[in-house]
Design goal:
The chain is of the alpha+beta class. It is built from 23 helices and 11 strands.
């Protein structure tokens, strides 16, 4: 592989005009496709195999035109102090508001609070429920504006009015987080390279790769039913890995120049060596993202595949466009150790070069491996302790900031009707196979009334055919509580007994039940996903490192860093530690998608650092250095670059902590802290300590397996010419 990539690097350097033209043409083509593509709404959200989804599908069949998955809004009214919602003036205002709400073209129906008995016992709070024909993400802006205007008119009459539900759900937009990440990346790259030109190359290629990937996703969004979150994830991951991959190749190019090689030869060797590591690092990320299909949630599968495509583009750009741009840059990209005008030229040194910080740190770890290993493992283990208390759930209006109307509506409903009123359960009774459907409906209602934590059970509402009915159940606890989850399971267990007695099938659905089912599905898929992703990457790393223990150490270190990161997420977002500093207004269950999302993204990025750092150690070992010295050599060449890459990644993810959305805030914090743990504790401390303790055993591979595995030559052994051999071995090791 190294020889093949070496040829690609030299060809791209020589034919830089053609390579640049191809990538610019691809970017233009993707941009034109995105500009001409129809505007796509949010992707349809379905959870195959869950009971809540089966109930939704059944409602579509048996209650045609009801839009079971349509958006809903609860317009909550509160009377001024000393007044009641039943006072004539307030009553007239509410009914006028209901009349205005019913005029919308996308409105399916609106309930009158006074006819539906939706007034609190003390008479101070009432609500009108608006049901729409389309989902919240598909709702027109005109419908949302009409909803807010109606509420504003009621406020002018003296009432307190807030709007809950998913009708005002906003389409996620990227804010300034990417700009912050790019700005920090630029500063880190300038400090790392000491040159604006060298620093600009990774940024330019990363932006081109992200532009092609996101534009392609936008162009295909309508045809493939891709949601807006798909392009957001692709942008986040593509930007991070695009900068990293280009950073490693440019760094290796400068190291090759420092060895006295011509620029074209240096570009070829940089792509042949560092490029090989880029290919395998990219493969681990692709495996992790495509592996999300194991969860069997179509939206998550599409997000993973689209992001994996963007990563593949980043790899191809790093292998071809970076050497082409290096050809354009010429002498403006200087050899390693030689600074440009930005920081002043390096002074000539007499005698051997002073060891850099990476070499000094690695030497310290090699001398005291046991102490460093114990300190790293104990520290991460302590950080992982809160993960034992992990509670999973999906965010609702109760997790919104208190400044939002959705959160204020949630609090008003809890005040007037109880916390469970914000998450009613819809029970669907399928009595098509029952001899007496009406009796079955009654039996289900009676059975539910006898369960704990049930506040209200509405009478069964059958369809026209009389073979299916819906029953609304209001729990006594808030939607995200463990008690409500137990109630959902209790209704389903009771439904089993009813089915045995009456032949009717009982299904529980609604947003609360759907959230519970999604959390359970994601939780069940976590172990199979881990086995698949870690297993495939383990086999891939065996091929790369030609070792059993090094890939095993890499996988175990990753699990340790992920558990520590999950522990930090639990401590902040569930327990409330440092919640004020992080801007967390409401603690609660951790988003159910968080563990599997962290595993997928962090595993790919962690293996990036593993491959780039350890391949330099492997290269030094293969070229004759002792195991301990190979560790120091790997750090001398790789520690600075890996540290820069990790800081860039942390900055990109940390920018999302400032978001007002709790879900986005949690993802940003979780990924940032996970990269910090993995890069600076696992890869920079635990990895060299373990390799120092293992010595030559770290690179052991059974002979039969060595013969069976393909020789991918990541170390670039095949690139050494006859003149490089013998005395030149040491020079190549330093490169």
């Amino acid at each position: 592989m190294a020889t093949f990539l070496y040829k690609i690097g030299r060809l791209s350097f020589r034919r830089r005009h053609l390579i640049a033209l191809i990538w610019v043409a691809l970017l233009t083509l993707a941009g034109v496709g995105a500009a001409g593509a129809p505007v796509a709404g949010n992707s349809s959200f379905s959870i195959p195999g869950t009971e809540a989804q089966k109930a939704f599908d059944l409602l579509e069949q048996r209650f045609p035109g009801t839009s079971a998955d349509g958006a809903t809004a609860r317009v909550v009214f509160k009377a001024p102090s000393g007044e009641k919602m039943t006072d004539p003036g307030n009553k007239a205002t509410v009914r006028e508001t209901v009349k205005e709400l019913a005029d919308g073209s996308e409105v399916a129906r609106v309930t009158d609070p006074y006819q539906a008995k939706a007034v609190s016992k003390d008479g101070t709070i009432a609500y009108a429920q608006v049901s729409y024909k389309v989902s919240g993400m598909e709702l027109d802006d005109a419908s949302k504006d009409a909803l807010e205007d109606s509420a504003q008119d009621a406020r002018k009459a003296g009432l307190t009015v807030e709007i809950g539900g998913d009708a005002l759900q906003a389409v996620p937009h990227t804010g300034s987080s990417e700009i912050i990440g790019i700005a920090v990346a630029a500063v880190v790259l300038v400090i790392t390279f000491g040159s604006l030109v060298a620093a600009g190359l990774p940024l330019l290629t990363a932006l081109i790769g992200v532009g092609i990937g996101v534009s392609t996703i936008t162009a295909l969004a309508s045809a493939l039913d891709l949601g807006t979150t798909t392009s957001t994830l692709a942008m986040m991951i593509g930007l991070a890995v695009g900068i990293d991959y280009a950073l490693f190749i440019v760094s290796r190019y400068r190291a090759e120049l420092a060895e006295g090689r011509e620029r074209e030869e240096a570009a070829g060797r940089a792509v042949g060596t560092a490029g090989s590591a880029v290919v395998f690092a990219g493969l681990t990320v692709v495996i992790a993202l495509v592996g999300l299909s194991v969860v069997n949630i179509p939206m998550l599968t599409k997000m993973g595949i689209a992001a994996a495509g963007t990563v593949a583009i980043a790899v191809l750009i790093a292998l071809t466009m970076i050497p082409a741009l290096l050809g354009y840059a010429g002498r403006k990209v200087r050899p390693a150790g030689e600074k440009g005008r930005l920081f002043g030229r390096a002074k000539a040194q007499d005698g051997p070069a002073k060891p850099n910080l990476g070499s000094r740190w690695a030497s310290f770890v090699v001398r005291r491996p046991v102490a460093v290993l114990l300190l790293g493992v104990v520290g991460l283990g302590a950080a992982a302790v809160p993960a034992a208390s992990l509670e999973l759930g999906l965010p609702d209006d109760g997790s919104q900031p208190t400044s939002t109307t959705q959160r204020r509506a949630y609090d008003l409903l809890s005040e007037g009707f109880g916390p469970g009123f914000n998450g009613p359960l819809m029970v669907v009774v399928d009595a098509k196979d029952s001899d007496d459907p009406k009796a079955a409906f009654t039996a289900v209602g009676d059975e539910i009334k006898g369960l704990k934590d049930v506040v209200t059970v509405t009478p069964p509402a059958p369809n026209k055919a009389g073979d299916t009915a819906t029953i609304t159940v209001v729990p006594g606890s808030k939607p995200s509580s463990v008690t409500t989850e137990d109630l959902v399971h209790g209704i389903r267990d009771a439904g089993t007994d009813v089915r045995a007695d009456t032949g009717a099938n009982v299904l529980v659905t609604g947003s609360t039940a759907m959230n519970i089912d999604v959390s359970q599905k994601l939780n069940d898929a976590l172990v199979p996903y881990l086995v698949l992703v870690v297993g495939l990457a383990f086999l891939l790393l065996i091929v790369v490192f030609r070792s059993i223990l090094v890939p095993l150490k890499a996988a175990l270190g990753f699990l340790l860093s992920v558990m520590a990161a999950l522990g930090a997420v639990v401590a902040v977002f569930q327990w409330g530690w440092l919640s004020g500093l992080m801007g967390v207004e409401q603690t609660g269950p951790v988003m159910s998608m968080m563990p599997i999302f962290m595993v997928g993204v962090v595993f790919g990025l962690a293996m990036d650092y593993e491959v780039f750092l350890v391949t330099r150690m492997r290269e030094a070992y293969v070229h004759g250095e002792k195991p301990a010295q190979a560790v120091v050599t790997g750090f001398r060449h790789g520690a600075r670059v890996v540290s820069a890459a990790a800081v860039i990644m942390i900055a990109v993810f940390a920018g999302f902590i400032g978001s007002s959305e709790s879900m986005v805030k949690m993802i940003g914090f979780g990924l940032a802290i996970a990269v910090f743990f993995d890069a600076f504790i696992v890869r920079m401390a635990i990895v060299p300590a373990v390799l120092a303790l293992l010595g030559r055993k770290a690179w052991w591979l059974p002979r039969w397996l060595d013969r069976a595995l393909p020789n991918v030559d990541v170390e670039g052994e095949g690139l050494r010419s006859a003149s490089d051999r013998g005395d030149g071995d040491r020079a190549l090791v330093r490169a």
